[in-house]
Amino acid sequence: MQISYVRTSEELQALCERLDQFEHIFYDTEFISEDVYLPDLCLIQVASREEVAVIDPKPNLDLAPFWKLLTDPKHIVVAHAAREEFLFCLRSTGNRLSRLFDTQIAAGMVGLEYPASFGNLILKLLNEKLPKGETRTNWRERPLTERQLEYARNDVIYLIPLYDALHAQMTKLDRYSWLDEEMEKWQDGLERYSTRPAWRSVSGIGNLSRRSLAIVRELWTWRDQRAQRQNSPPRRILRDDLMVELARRRSDKVAHIRALRGMNRRDLEPLMDDIAEAVRVAMELSEEDCPSISRNNSQQQYVVLGQFLTAALGSICREARVAPSLASTVQDVRDLVAYHLDGADQPPLLARGWRAEVVGRTIEQLLDGTLVVRIGNPRANEPLDFERSGPASDS
To answer: Which residues pair with 78 in a beta bridge?
Structure first.
């Protein structure tokens, strides 16, 4: 297999012309994210079935030809756990990776662990162990050592046989329509994440009032804008739990804000007036301009039924050779229970697409009594049995 190290625009253009001849392009990146607002792209690894290349973007290389290659619909782009790989392309071009095959998601769709690390899948499917000596390396430093380059190349070299193994299982189980659906949903979610304010993802806001949610939103917006200007991780400026506690206290007095445990950091002192102003803006909003409270299906019957059905869901998924953690979360099950009992404008995740086929319909049959679950052999790996029944009686 030809090996190259690309550092100039001329070398990149020639590489892209060679890769363009192949249907499959295997793609990975090395990046650093812990001290910046957005991940810092340090290295790109790419391969065809005849060549592997490491692209160094650090000399301000114009990557436009490479992104054009990856968004061309004639190619299948293969990557593992490709969240950042997708986002690098999306931020650079506004376009998605072409016909993306994510090996982590594909593994979950054939009954393997999800989410599985690249090394674990290589070990399980190829019976080989990847060296991981460079997992904590500083990819910004130049020149790169031969050991670093070998580590980087391995990530795409091993993608090729991993893809082949998963492709064979996907074909045998006829799951490609499922994968297409899942990759579309997955990419939709990442596009929303990259373009919409994500203040509702702040942990601990589930029981806040509308006014307190407005405070979280204003603090999140202020924090995000400052983080962008400083090129710093947002949580390094103000932690989520402190934003939530400020929202609960609902005070724009600097003295009250400063008195909160955790707010007495020296680097926060110059920001006190800005924080108080964000709280004040939220406090002065009209009630109708405050965020609505999301339905969380926390009623007792949803919780109890969700717990019971989540246990059954594991057996359903393993029987269908789908990773339970890929199919649904506990909240997804509660959403389906709420939809079945009370109805909703939009069907939830488990009532749509391949998830409805695998688990959603079975759960609905358990809810309406046409299917019952019982303990079969308690010593078996799958001790639960599912049996057909007549319609549930009202008595």
So the answer is: 26, 101
